[in-house]
Amino acid sequence: MSFSFKTWPFPSPKKNTHLLKCSKYGLVAHAMNNNVSIYVEEFGHFTPLLMWSPFQHQITALEWYDASKTMNTTVPVFVLSSLSGRLEVYDCRSRIAIFRSNINLNEHSANDPISAIQYPTPTTISQSAANSRRENDYVTSITWSQFSSSCFFVGTKNGRLLRFEITIGQIVKCRVVWELFFDFQIDYICIEPQFGEVCAIASEKGSIATIQNINKYQEGKPPEASPNVVTLLNKTDSIHEIKFYPTSTQFLILVTTSNSLLYSISDCCTAPLLMLPGIRKLHILHDSGNIALTVRDDSVELWKFLTNQNKRLSEAKLITSPKYANVSEILVSDMMGDNLVFITSQMWLTMIEVKFSSKFRD
Fold first, then answer.
1. pTM of the entire structure?
2. Which long-range contacts (CB under 8 A, 24 or more apart) does 90-94 make?
3. Which end of the chain has less neighbouring CB within 10 Å, N or C?
4. Is the Cβ–Cβ distance between 49 and 39 less than 8 Å?
5. How do residues 337-357 score in pLDDT, each as one tens digit?
6. Is 54 helix (H, G, I), strand (E, B) or coil?
7. Residue 152: its pLDDT value, please?
8. By the 8 A CB rule, do 360 and 2 touch?
Protein backbone atom coordinates (compact mmCIF):
# COMPACT_ATOMS: atom_id res chain seq x y z
CA MET A 1 0.00 0.00 0.00
CA SER A 2 1.37 3.44 -0.91
CA PHE A 3 0.49 6.97 -1.99
CA SER A 4 0.67 8.61 -5.39
CA PHE A 5 0.72 12.36 -6.06
CA LYS A 6 -0.83 14.74 -8.59
CA THR A 7 0.20 18.40 -8.43
CA TRP A 8 -0.64 21.72 -10.07
CA PRO A 9 1.37 24.91 -9.40
CA PHE A 10 -0.64 27.64 -7.73
CA PRO A 11 0.00 31.37 -8.03
CA SER A 12 0.46 33.55 -4.91
CA PRO A 13 2.93 32.49 -2.16
CA LYS A 14 1.58 35.14 0.27
CA LYS A 15 -0.02 34.19 3.59
CA ASN A 16 -3.78 34.19 3.07
CA THR A 17 -7.01 32.72 4.42
CA HIS A 18 -7.89 29.53 2.51
CA LEU A 19 -10.94 27.33 2.04
CA LEU A 20 -11.00 24.19 -0.12
CA LYS A 21 -13.98 22.07 -1.14
CA CYS A 22 -14.13 19.13 -3.56
CA SER A 23 -17.24 17.94 -5.34
CA LYS A 24 -17.83 14.23 -5.81
CA TYR A 25 -17.64 14.74 -9.58
CA GLY A 26 -14.08 16.03 -10.09
CA LEU A 27 -14.44 19.78 -9.41
CA VAL A 28 -12.36 21.63 -6.81
CA ALA A 29 -13.20 25.07 -5.39
CA HIS A 30 -10.45 27.04 -3.67
CA ALA A 31 -11.19 30.33 -1.92
CA MET A 32 -8.36 32.65 -0.95
CA ASN A 33 -9.55 35.76 0.88
CA ASN A 34 -12.30 37.04 -1.45
CA ASN A 35 -11.19 35.18 -4.59
CA VAL A 36 -12.46 31.84 -5.89
CA SER A 37 -10.74 29.43 -8.29
CA ILE A 38 -12.45 26.39 -9.79
CA TYR A 39 -10.42 23.43 -11.07
CA VAL A 40 -11.47 20.27 -12.84
CA GLU A 41 -9.58 17.02 -12.43
CA GLU A 42 -8.99 15.36 -15.82
CA PHE A 43 -6.35 13.13 -17.38
CA GLY A 44 -4.35 12.89 -14.19
CA HIS A 45 -4.01 16.60 -13.43
CA PHE A 46 -6.00 19.72 -12.45
CA THR A 47 -7.06 22.25 -15.09
CA PRO A 48 -8.15 25.81 -14.15
CA LEU A 49 -11.77 26.42 -15.11
CA LEU A 50 -12.83 29.73 -13.49
CA MET A 51 -11.29 32.48 -11.38
CA TRP A 52 -13.16 35.52 -10.04
CA SER A 53 -13.96 37.66 -6.96
CA PRO A 54 -17.62 37.23 -6.00
CA PHE A 55 -17.49 39.54 -2.95
CA GLN A 56 -15.67 42.59 -1.65
CA HIS A 57 -15.21 40.88 1.71
CA GLN A 58 -13.51 37.65 2.75
CA ILE A 59 -15.20 34.37 1.84
CA THR A 60 -16.22 32.56 5.02
CA ALA A 61 -17.71 29.26 3.79
CA LEU A 62 -18.44 27.31 0.61
CA GLU A 63 -19.95 23.94 -0.32
CA TRP A 64 -20.74 22.03 -3.51
CA TYR A 65 -24.14 20.72 -4.58
CA ASP A 66 -24.25 17.07 -3.53
CA ALA A 67 -27.47 14.98 -3.86
CA SER A 68 -25.17 11.99 -4.47
CA LYS A 69 -27.66 9.58 -2.87
CA THR A 70 -30.52 10.53 -5.17
CA MET A 71 -31.37 9.74 -8.80
CA ASN A 72 -31.14 13.41 -9.80
CA THR A 73 -28.69 14.61 -12.43
CA THR A 74 -25.68 16.28 -10.87
CA VAL A 75 -25.17 19.99 -11.52
CA PRO A 76 -21.96 22.04 -11.04
CA VAL A 77 -23.48 24.40 -8.47
CA PHE A 78 -22.08 25.53 -5.14
CA VAL A 79 -23.00 27.85 -2.26
CA LEU A 80 -20.63 30.46 -0.83
CA SER A 81 -20.77 33.29 1.68
CA SER A 82 -18.88 36.39 2.77
CA LEU A 83 -17.91 38.18 5.97
CA SER A 84 -20.56 40.86 5.31
CA GLY A 85 -23.37 38.27 5.43
CA ARG A 86 -23.80 37.73 1.70
CA LEU A 87 -24.93 34.30 0.50
CA GLU A 88 -24.76 33.18 -3.14
CA VAL A 89 -25.60 30.07 -5.14
CA TYR A 90 -23.28 29.95 -8.15
CA ASP A 91 -23.75 27.91 -11.35
CA CYS A 92 -20.45 27.02 -13.05
CA ARG A 93 -22.24 26.22 -16.34
CA SER A 94 -23.73 29.68 -16.90
CA ARG A 95 -20.95 31.31 -14.83
CA ILE A 96 -23.39 33.46 -12.88
CA ALA A 97 -24.84 33.59 -9.39
CA ILE A 98 -28.36 32.17 -9.71
CA PHE A 99 -29.39 33.32 -6.23
CA ARG A 100 -28.12 36.16 -4.03
CA SER A 101 -29.23 37.14 -0.56
CA ASN A 102 -28.00 38.39 2.80
CA ILE A 103 -28.47 36.76 6.19
CA ASN A 104 -27.31 39.93 7.98
CA LEU A 105 -30.33 42.16 8.65
CA ASN A 106 -28.07 45.19 9.05
CA GLU A 107 -26.78 44.86 5.49
CA HIS A 108 -30.15 44.70 3.72
CA SER A 109 -31.90 47.75 2.33
CA ALA A 110 -34.92 48.41 0.13
CA ASN A 111 -32.64 49.42 -2.75
CA ASP A 112 -30.54 46.28 -2.53
CA PRO A 113 -30.99 44.17 -5.71
CA ILE A 114 -30.43 40.88 -3.87
CA SER A 115 -33.33 38.71 -2.72
CA ALA A 116 -34.76 39.38 0.72
CA ILE A 117 -35.05 36.32 2.97
CA GLN A 118 -38.41 35.62 4.58
CA TYR A 119 -37.79 33.91 7.90
CA PRO A 120 -40.31 31.60 9.58
CA THR A 121 -41.72 32.62 12.96
CA PRO A 122 -39.31 31.47 15.70
CA THR A 123 -40.68 28.83 18.08
CA THR A 124 -37.99 28.68 20.79
CA ILE A 125 -37.16 32.39 21.29
CA SER A 126 -39.05 35.66 20.85
CA GLN A 127 -39.26 37.53 17.56
CA SER A 128 -37.14 40.39 18.92
CA ALA A 129 -34.49 37.95 20.17
CA ALA A 130 -34.47 36.23 16.77
CA ASN A 131 -34.03 39.54 14.95
CA SER A 132 -31.19 40.42 17.32
CA ARG A 133 -29.42 37.16 16.35
CA ARG A 134 -29.93 38.04 12.66
CA GLU A 135 -28.05 41.32 13.02
CA ASN A 136 -24.28 41.53 12.46
CA ASP A 137 -24.26 37.89 11.43
CA TYR A 138 -22.53 35.90 8.70
CA VAL A 139 -22.27 32.29 7.52
CA THR A 140 -19.53 30.15 9.05
CA SER A 141 -20.45 26.70 7.66
CA ILE A 142 -22.48 25.20 4.79
CA THR A 143 -23.48 21.59 4.07
CA TRP A 144 -25.51 20.26 1.15
CA SER A 145 -27.65 17.19 1.82
CA GLN A 146 -26.64 13.97 0.02
CA PHE A 147 -30.30 12.99 0.03
CA SER A 148 -31.78 16.06 -1.67
CA SER A 149 -31.17 18.03 -4.85
CA SER A 150 -32.76 21.12 -3.32
CA CYS A 151 -31.65 21.28 0.31
CA PHE A 152 -28.64 22.83 2.00
CA PHE A 153 -27.92 23.84 5.59
CA VAL A 154 -26.22 26.99 6.81
CA GLY A 155 -24.62 27.71 10.22
CA THR A 156 -23.73 31.21 11.38
CA LYS A 157 -21.49 33.16 13.75
CA ASN A 158 -24.46 34.01 15.99
CA GLY A 159 -25.51 30.35 16.37
CA ARG A 160 -28.28 30.11 13.78
CA LEU A 161 -28.87 26.89 11.86
CA LEU A 162 -30.99 27.38 8.73
CA ARG A 163 -32.40 24.91 6.25
CA PHE A 164 -32.69 26.34 2.72
CA GLU A 165 -34.77 24.86 -0.09
CA ILE A 166 -33.80 25.87 -3.62
CA THR A 167 -35.40 25.05 -6.97
CA ILE A 168 -32.82 25.20 -9.76
CA GLY A 169 -34.36 25.83 -13.17
CA GLN A 170 -35.09 28.67 -15.58
CA ILE A 171 -36.57 30.49 -12.60
CA VAL A 172 -34.60 29.91 -9.40
CA LYS A 173 -36.52 30.00 -6.14
CA CYS A 174 -34.95 29.78 -2.69
CA ARG A 175 -36.47 29.99 0.78
CA VAL A 176 -35.69 29.29 4.43
CA VAL A 177 -37.72 26.27 5.59
CA TRP A 178 -36.75 26.43 9.26
CA GLU A 179 -34.35 28.20 11.59
CA LEU A 180 -32.94 27.00 14.92
CA PHE A 181 -30.96 29.01 17.47
CA PHE A 182 -27.95 27.88 19.53
CA ASP A 183 -25.65 29.58 22.02
CA PHE A 184 -22.44 28.96 20.10
CA GLN A 185 -20.94 29.73 16.71
CA ILE A 186 -21.64 26.91 14.25
CA ASP A 187 -18.32 26.10 12.56
CA TYR A 188 -19.18 22.54 11.46
CA ILE A 189 -22.31 20.83 10.15
CA CYS A 190 -22.53 17.13 9.28
CA ILE A 191 -25.44 14.89 8.30
CA GLU A 192 -25.47 11.16 8.98
CA PRO A 193 -24.82 9.26 5.72
CA GLN A 194 -27.23 6.34 6.22
CA PHE A 195 -30.65 8.02 6.03
CA GLY A 196 -29.95 11.76 6.19
CA GLU A 197 -32.26 12.31 9.17
CA VAL A 198 -29.81 13.36 11.90
CA CYS A 199 -27.60 16.45 11.90
CA ALA A 200 -24.70 17.31 14.21
CA ILE A 201 -23.23 20.78 14.65
CA ALA A 202 -20.16 21.99 16.52
CA SER A 203 -18.03 25.02 17.25
CA GLU A 204 -14.26 25.14 17.05
CA LYS A 205 -14.26 25.96 20.78
CA GLY A 206 -15.78 22.56 21.59
CA SER A 207 -19.59 22.78 21.80
CA ILE A 208 -21.56 19.97 20.14
CA ALA A 209 -25.31 19.53 19.55
CA THR A 210 -27.48 17.17 17.49
CA ILE A 211 -30.83 17.59 15.73
CA GLN A 212 -33.13 14.65 14.95
CA ASN A 213 -35.64 14.37 12.06
CA ILE A 214 -34.18 17.31 10.13
CA ASN A 215 -36.41 16.58 7.11
CA LYS A 216 -39.69 16.92 9.04
CA TYR A 217 -41.44 20.26 9.21
CA GLN A 218 -44.94 19.75 10.50
CA GLU A 219 -47.48 22.45 11.32
CA GLY A 220 -44.88 25.14 10.94
CA LYS A 221 -42.64 23.66 13.64
CA PRO A 222 -38.95 23.01 12.96
CA PRO A 223 -37.22 19.86 14.26
CA GLU A 224 -36.16 19.92 17.90
CA ALA A 225 -32.54 19.98 18.92
CA SER A 226 -31.31 17.62 21.57
CA PRO A 227 -31.33 19.28 25.01
CA ASN A 228 -27.81 17.95 25.56
CA VAL A 229 -25.22 20.46 24.38
CA VAL A 230 -21.86 18.85 25.10
CA THR A 231 -18.54 20.65 25.49
CA LEU A 232 -15.00 19.24 25.49
CA LEU A 233 -13.60 18.61 28.97
CA ASN A 234 -10.18 19.93 28.00
CA LYS A 235 -10.78 23.69 27.59
CA THR A 236 -7.52 24.10 25.68
CA ASP A 237 -8.74 21.68 22.99
CA SER A 238 -10.28 22.86 19.73
CA ILE A 239 -12.38 20.87 17.27
CA HIS A 240 -10.81 20.56 13.83
CA GLU A 241 -13.40 18.24 12.26
CA ILE A 242 -16.68 16.50 13.06
CA LYS A 243 -18.34 13.78 10.98
CA PHE A 244 -20.53 10.73 11.42
CA TYR A 245 -18.87 7.33 11.56
CA PRO A 246 -19.50 5.92 8.03
CA THR A 247 -21.65 2.97 9.15
CA SER A 248 -23.44 4.51 12.12
CA THR A 249 -26.16 7.04 12.88
CA GLN A 250 -25.25 7.19 16.57
CA PHE A 251 -21.49 7.79 16.59
CA LEU A 252 -19.52 10.88 15.62
CA ILE A 253 -15.83 11.17 14.87
CA LEU A 254 -14.34 14.20 16.64
CA VAL A 255 -10.90 15.40 15.59
CA THR A 256 -9.48 17.74 18.23
CA THR A 257 -6.18 19.45 18.90
CA SER A 258 -4.97 16.63 21.15
CA ASN A 259 -6.50 13.45 19.63
CA SER A 260 -9.44 11.92 17.77
CA LEU A 261 -12.48 10.51 19.55
CA LEU A 262 -15.67 8.54 18.99
CA TYR A 263 -18.68 10.34 20.46
CA SER A 264 -21.87 8.44 21.30
CA ILE A 265 -24.93 10.61 20.64
CA SER A 266 -27.25 8.48 22.78
CA ASP A 267 -24.88 8.23 25.77
CA CYS A 268 -23.24 11.67 25.45
CA CYS A 269 -19.80 10.22 26.09
CA THR A 270 -16.54 9.76 24.19
CA ALA A 271 -14.08 6.94 23.62
CA PRO A 272 -10.55 7.22 22.16
CA LEU A 273 -10.23 6.49 18.45
CA LEU A 274 -6.68 7.47 17.51
CA MET A 275 -4.61 9.00 20.29
CA LEU A 276 -2.40 11.09 18.05
CA PRO A 277 -1.93 14.85 18.56
CA GLY A 278 -1.92 17.32 15.70
CA ILE A 279 -4.49 15.60 13.44
CA ARG A 280 -6.35 18.07 11.23
CA LYS A 281 -8.55 15.58 9.36
CA LEU A 282 -9.42 11.88 9.65
CA HIS A 283 -11.11 9.90 6.89
CA ILE A 284 -12.01 6.21 7.07
CA LEU A 285 -11.47 4.66 3.64
CA HIS A 286 -14.75 3.33 2.28
CA ASP A 287 -13.40 0.02 0.95
CA SER A 288 -11.50 -0.86 4.12
CA GLY A 289 -13.74 -0.24 7.12
CA ASN A 290 -10.79 -0.13 9.52
CA ILE A 291 -8.14 1.92 7.68
CA ALA A 292 -8.06 5.68 8.16
CA LEU A 293 -6.24 8.45 6.32
CA THR A 294 -5.07 11.23 8.64
CA VAL A 295 -3.87 14.72 7.77
CA ARG A 296 -1.39 16.54 10.02
CA ASP A 297 0.42 19.85 9.54
CA ASP A 298 3.21 18.37 7.45
CA SER A 299 2.28 14.75 6.73
CA VAL A 300 -0.41 12.38 5.50
CA GLU A 301 -0.61 8.97 7.15
CA LEU A 302 -2.49 5.68 6.86
CA TRP A 303 -3.54 3.96 10.10
CA LYS A 304 -5.17 0.61 10.66
CA PHE A 305 -7.53 0.22 13.62
CA LEU A 306 -6.74 -2.99 15.52
CA THR A 307 -8.33 -4.47 18.63
CA ASN A 308 -5.41 -3.89 20.96
CA GLN A 309 -3.23 -1.34 19.20
CA ASN A 310 -3.54 0.88 16.12
CA LYS A 311 -0.84 0.45 13.49
CA ARG A 312 0.58 3.06 11.12
CA LEU A 313 0.79 1.56 7.63
CA SER A 314 2.28 4.39 5.63
CA GLU A 315 3.39 8.02 5.85
CA ALA A 316 3.91 10.73 3.24
CA LYS A 317 6.11 13.42 4.80
CA LEU A 318 6.02 16.80 3.09
CA ILE A 319 9.24 18.81 3.09
CA THR A 320 8.82 22.29 4.55
CA SER A 321 10.68 25.07 2.80
CA PRO A 322 12.81 27.16 5.23
CA LYS A 323 11.13 30.40 4.10
CA TYR A 324 7.79 29.00 5.32
CA ALA A 325 9.18 27.47 8.50
CA ASN A 326 6.43 28.96 10.72
CA VAL A 327 3.59 27.88 8.44
CA SER A 328 1.95 24.45 8.24
CA GLU A 329 2.99 22.63 5.11
CA ILE A 330 -0.63 21.60 4.44
CA LEU A 331 -2.66 24.82 4.52
CA VAL A 332 -6.10 23.38 3.78
CA SER A 333 -7.48 20.05 2.57
CA ASP A 334 -10.60 18.15 1.58
CA MET A 335 -11.52 14.65 0.43
CA MET A 336 -12.55 13.74 -3.12
CA GLY A 337 -13.91 10.25 -2.54
CA ASP A 338 -11.00 8.41 -0.89
CA ASN A 339 -8.43 10.79 -2.41
CA LEU A 340 -7.01 13.74 -0.49
CA VAL A 341 -6.74 17.15 -2.16
CA PHE A 342 -4.77 19.91 -0.43
CA ILE A 343 -2.80 23.11 -0.91
CA THR A 344 0.78 23.32 0.33
CA SER A 345 2.60 26.29 1.87
CA GLN A 346 4.27 26.83 -1.51
CA MET A 347 0.84 27.07 -3.13
CA TRP A 348 0.70 23.72 -4.93
CA LEU A 349 -2.70 22.14 -5.43
CA THR A 350 -1.97 18.49 -4.75
CA MET A 351 -3.84 15.18 -4.74
CA ILE A 352 -2.79 12.06 -2.85
CA GLU A 353 -4.31 8.76 -3.92
CA VAL A 354 -4.21 5.64 -1.78
CA LYS A 355 -2.87 2.66 -3.69
CA PHE A 356 -3.33 -0.83 -2.25
CA SER A 357 -0.10 -2.08 -3.75
CA SER A 358 3.62 -2.01 -3.05
CA LYS A 359 4.50 0.31 -5.92
CA PHE A 360 4.78 4.07 -5.71
CA ARG A 361 3.65 6.06 -8.75
CA ASP A 362 4.33 9.77 -9.43
1. 0.91
2. 90/54, 91/168, 92/27, 92/38, 92/49, 92/50
3. C
4. yes
5. 889 999 998 889 999 988 766
6. coil
7. 95
8. yes
